[in-house]
Design brief:
- The structure holds two protein chains of two kinds.
- In chain A, 75% of the residues lie in helices and 0% in strands.
- By secondary structure, chain A is mainly α.
- Chain A has a domain of 217 residues: MetI-like (MetI-like fold).
- In chain A, helix 7 packs across helix 8 and helix 10 runs antiparallel to helix 13.
- Chain A starts with a helix and ends with a helix.
- Chain B is an alpha/beta fold.
- Chain B has a single domain, classed as Rossmann fold.
- Chain B has a six-stranded mixed β-sheet with strand order 6-7-8-3-9-10, sandwiched between helices. In chain B, strands 2-1-4-5 form a four-stranded antiparallel β-sheet, with helices on one face.
- At the A-B interface, helix 9 and helix 10 of A face helix 4, helix 5 and helix 8 of B.
């Protein structure tokens, strides 16, 4: 429209009569219905894109309301909540043991999954020949990423908890979570390694570096921000996982764990246990727990985004 | 020129080499009946060439004639390409580099390379230059060697106050000179250059050309170029490849450009085809 002679004339300060003439010129073309359809469809897809945001906002609103009611009506003290162990008596119950358990879970999960995951990614990207076995491994990685998390819990329950008989200890929980996030770490590490330009690899080889020197000195340092971002996002996924922990029986433990061989209940399982209680006090304790868990989760995501933005321009 | 040269010949290996350069036209690299295939496609067809020491040898020819393939054969960078197969003989000081007992990693420590597109590592300028020495386990005075190499690449004056900043922050021409510094820091014998100025502006390109001239005092330089004026300006010997991966003429640069034996070479050089 803006290119039509009509609009040019208007820009020159045309009069209303001239404008009418333009409309008369195109009188046989009726676009009103088409424009209406355009607007309707735009509204529809905008609503679709807002759906997730609104759902998240409603969820947060609900949790924050319960959180507020918990703090005021049930007089839950945040200090006590963050420093006391769990308890059968709601007025004495705290989240400390669950937080420590989750932090230890994350640390162990990170150690277990990071080296295996990055190692597998290096092999697949740098060494693996393009043959049937490699393709099979790659295809199964995506399958593995799609396995429901409870299945990993079941596996660890059968193999470790009951099989070897270690019981529902923290190490068993982190094995389940490590298996769960490993495909995510492998895939994101593969992407980060693939993003390192070949020119840089060739520069290293041409300087007389061996394959491992090239990987260690050039490829990994360049890929590391991407690998770390993927790992943090994977761990953020793991920290909120409830099903595998429930499956191995990490529930109803109120004590703070002292090591990887202690029984435990992580943040999500503690929240689950509280939310299942009939007492309103416990339910509001769960709401406070959710706020703490969400805060930690969003901070982890923020760190991942920060790392990505900081390094994506550098390489 | 004098400063860079003085600093370079202080090292043991270089002084050895200055002695060797007195021998007239000693052959460093020789290809005999060299064939290269990519899968079923023949990229080089029975190439015979002898590259003299401490000279600049230019390789020219139209696109797809196998110039870069030949260059990448010399330091076995073609090993990276799975479908690439090499037949025939390519010897470095009389030893066929495709023999089973030649480790390509060791070969590349004697034969450095500079690529078409500047490819500094995402590391500091210092670490870029020190890289080759570091991976070879050099434990001498690293600062001195880095300075030498940067002087040798005519970059020292521009970067000496920012050695810790990233190599990627430099301009394209500076990055390419950084790559040259990286290649000469471990003190190789031969430097291969694959169209080193084609991604640069004319000013940066002419700096690299001046540099190549100086490098020939210390190193044997083999340069692939699309630019015939460049080949005429900087090289002592010129090899002309024409379509089909055939080496059709190899002689002193003056001879090739003024009075080539092959009529097809004359046509190519005068711009009638290619």
């Amino acid at each position: 429209m803006s290119d039509s002679p009509d609009s040019k004339r208007r820009a020159d300060g045309g009069t209303a009569t001239e404008r009418t003439r333009g409309e008369e010129l195109f009188a046989d073309i009726d676009l009103r219905r088409e424009h209406l359809k355009n607007r309707a469809f735009l509204g529809l897809i905008f609503a679709a894109s807002m759906f997730g945001v609104v759902a998240l906002a409603l969820l947060l609103l609900d949790v924050v309301t319960d959180f507020y009611v918990g703090l005021t009506e049930f007089e839950i003290s945040l200090v006590q909540f963050l420093t006391a162990d769990g308890s059968r008596r709601p007025e004495r119950a705290g989240f400390f043991g669950a937080i420590i358990a989750s932090v230890m879970l994350m640390a162990l999960t990170a150690v277990l999954s990071f080296f295996v995951g990055v190692g597998a990614a290096i092999y697949l990207e740098e060494y693996a020949p393009n043959n049937r076995i490699t393709r099979l491994i790659k295809a199964n990685l995506s399958n593995l990423a799609g396995v429901p998390s409870i299945v990993y819990g079941l596996l660890v329950l059968a193999a470790l908890v009951n099989g070897i008989g270690v019981g529902p200890i923290l190490l068993a929980g982190s094995v389940a979570l490590a298996l769960l996030v490993m495909p995510i770490i492998i895939v994101s590490a593969q992407e980060a390694i693939r993003a390192v330009p070949d020119g840089v690899r060739n520069g290293s080889y041409a300087t007389g570096a061996t394959k491992w020197q090239t990987i260690r000195q050039v490829v990994l340092p360049s890929a590391m921000p991407g690998i770390l971002t993927g790992t943090i996002l994977a761990l953020a996924r793991a920290i909120g996982e409830t099903a595998p922990l429930l499956m191995i029986g990490a529930l109803f433990v109120n004590r703070t764990p002292f090591g990887p061989f202690d029984r435990f209940s992580g943040m999500p399982t503690q929240i689950y246990a509280w939310a299942a209680e009939p007492s309103q006090h416990f339910i509001h304790l769960a709401a406070v727990g959710i706020v703490v868990l969400l805060t930690i989760l969003l901070s982890m995501n923020a760190v991942a985004v920060y790392l990505r933005n900081k390094y994506e321009t550098a390489v | 020129m004098s400063t860079s040269e003085e600093s370079l010949i202080t090292t043991e290996v270089s002084s050895e080499r200055t002695g060797r350069s007195d021998r007239p036209d000693a052959t460093v690299l020789a290809a005999r009946d060299l064939d290269v295939y990519y899968g079923d496609d023949r990229a080089l067809a029975s190439v015979d060439v002898e590259i003299p020491e401490h000279k600049v040898t230019a390789i020219i020819g139209p696109s797809g004639c196998g110039k870069s393939t030949f260059l990448r054969c010399i330091n076995r960078m073609n090993d990276q390409i799975a479908v690439c197969r090499v037949d025939g003989d390519l010897s470095f000081h009389g030893k066929n580099v495709y023999d089973d007992d030649v480790d390509p990693v060791a070969l590349r420590r004697r034969v450095g390379m500079v690529f078409q597109k500047p490819n500094p590592f995402p590391k500091s300028i210092y670490d870029n230059v020190a890289y080759g020495l570091k991976i070879q386990g050099f434990d001498g005075d690293m600062d001195a060697r880095v300075e030498e190499a940067l002087r040798g690449a005519a970059l020292w004056g521009e970067v000496k106050d920012q050695l810790d900043s990233s190599g990627l922050d430099l301009s394209g021409g500076q990055q390419q000179r950084l790559c040259i510094a990286r290649a000469i820091a471990p003190d190789p014998e031969v430097i291969l250059m694959d169209e080193p100025t084609s991604a640069l502006d004319p000013v940066a390109a002419s700096k690299i050309e001046d540099l190549i001239d100086e490098l020939a005092e210390q190193y044997t330089v083999v340069i692939v170029t699309h630019n015939m004026q460049q080949a005429a300006r900087i090289s002592d010997k010129t090899a002309v490849f024409l379509t089909g991966g055939k080496l059709v003429e190899f002689d002193d640069t003056a001879k090739v450009f003024e009075n080539p034996d092959e009529p097809r070479v004359e046509e190519y050089i005068t711009g009638k085809f290619g």
